[in-house]
Amino acid sequence: MAPHLRTISREEHLAFVASRPAASHMQVPSWGEVKPDWRAESIGWFDRDGGGRERIVGAGLVLYRPIPRVKRYLAYLPEGPVIDWHTADLGQWLDPMLAHLKGQGAFSVRMGPPVIARRWDARTVKDAIADPASGRLRDVPPDEEEPSAAEVVERLRALGWRRGGEESEDGFSAGQPRYVFQVPFAGLSLEEIRGNLNQQWRRNIKKAEKAGVKVVEGDYEDLPAFYELYRETAERDRFIPRPLAYFQRMWTVLRAEDPDRMRLYLAQHDGETLSAATMLTVGNHVWYSYGASTGRKREVQPSNAIQWRMMSDAHERGAAVYDLRGITDTLDEANHLVGLLRFKVGTGGRAAEYIGEWDHPINKVLHKAFTLYMARR
């Protein structure tokens, strides 16, 4: 029997997420409050058990973005929805979703299936960076390939979906990153995880400890200190920083939903904060979300110290995956993002490629107009 779909309450949504090992932090109700420019809605798929009782079997957070001067919306499900992506009949999930979103005024739908297609071990990525012939990660033979991911892609195309999110030269799209770096924790002791760090990482952690770097958990009042480092990082790494109010709102709404949802860490040396980072948790999946550091006192290795403390805390809380989020697709040593890639590779984890974000135009004229509008921005 095909599941039916309806709007669900915050409580129903949270209960479903809690029943699963993990879900994206962008697929919990509070994430809608982080994005005040978007209207948020929780939707759920239902079927009936053997006794005829209704039960929820899938959920999604939809963010509706209005287009200028028209009462129509782009409906966006970042890193979602949370459904059975590997079912043979994907249409029984997505067709009622499209019908519902059309009824809500959506002219186009974008979603990010949480389906990984390929993985590369740290050693493979390191060797590719060192090889001048390797231009992009996508062209490097993977260590692991998921055949079922290709089947999901075929089913999406057959249902009229098309890949969205034009990628930049660095491999980043306008939506969520297609390439990420993850450290598997499941079944490993903390000592084994430390042993998987490369030699430079282990050496830097010891340097930080010997230099007296202290990593502490911060609170709301410490967000301005984080933000000063974040602004410096944005200038150094050439990206546009979010405002302080964004992080303050993020802290308030995520922790109101679950006190463990967001944490702030500060690496300090002789009373000076040198590095800071935020950590997000949903179930057994932990994300290194935002990082910031100063160019001062780099020799005491505060960034390695803060990451190791976060990894240690994540492991203690039962994390199965420590996710360092987006990485560049380019392997060109001249690109400034390769340094960040090399830093993440040092954790000994794996690069992963998702199948990307997908669009389904409901009104093709408005979809095309909105695409052109965003391109001009």
- This entry's quaternary arrangement is single chain
Radius of gyration: 21 Å
What's the CATH topology label of the largest domain? Answer: Aminopeptidase
Task: Count the beta strands.
Answer: 16
CATH architecture of the largest domain, by name, is: 3-Layer(aba) Sandwich
Order of helices and strands: EHHEEEHEEHEHEEHHEHHEEEHEHEEH
Unreliable sequence segments: 167-173
The class by helix and strand makeup works out as alpha+beta
Helical coverage, percent range: 25-40%
Q: What fraction strand?
A: 25-35%
Question: How is this structure best described in words?
Answer:
- This protein is α+β, with helices and mostly antiparallel strands and 377 residues long.
- The protein has 2 domains: 4-112 and 357-376, Gcn5-related N-acetyltransferase (GNAT) (Aminopeptidase); 116-146 and 160-354, Aminopeptidase (3-Layer(aba) Sandwich).
- Helix content is 36%, strand content 28%.
- The protein has 12 helices and 16 strands.
- It has helices at 10-18, 29-34, 91-103, 122-130, 147-158, 190-196, 199-211, 223-237, 244-257, 302-316, 338-345, 364-376; strands at residues 4-7, 39-48, 54-67, 70-77, 106-111, 116-121, 144-145, 162-163, 179-184, 214-217, 262-269, 272-282, 285-293, 321-326, 350-354, 358-361.
- α7 packs across α10 (302-316).
- The radius of gyration is 21 Å and the shape is globular.
- This is Lipid II:glycine glycyltransferase FemX.
- Belongs to the FemABX family.
- It comes from Streptomyces pulveraceus.
- Keywords: Acyltransferase, Cell shape, Cell wall biogenesis/degradation, Peptidoglycan synthesis, Transferase.
- InterPro entries: Acyl_CoA_acyltransferase, FEMABX, PG_Glycine_Bridge_Synth.
